[in-house]
Design brief:
Helix content is 57%, strand content 0%. It has 67 residues and is mainly alpha-helical. The protein has a domain at 5-42.
Amino acid sequence: MRLGIWEILLILIVAMLFFGPKRLTDLGPALGKSIRGFKKGLSGDEGHADGHGDGETPPPASGNPRP
């Protein structure tokens, strides 16, 4: 199923009415960021096994280590 120019135009008009111009411009980057995160999760590129997959170093351990 292919979308024609009139269908795309109608979708854009409805989105503009629903979200407004300010929120619509903020929606693009947020959507891109969430899609990148989803793809990263699907590819298994999680990083470290301790759950710090965002490139940050884990926080230092506090207290005495348990034997």
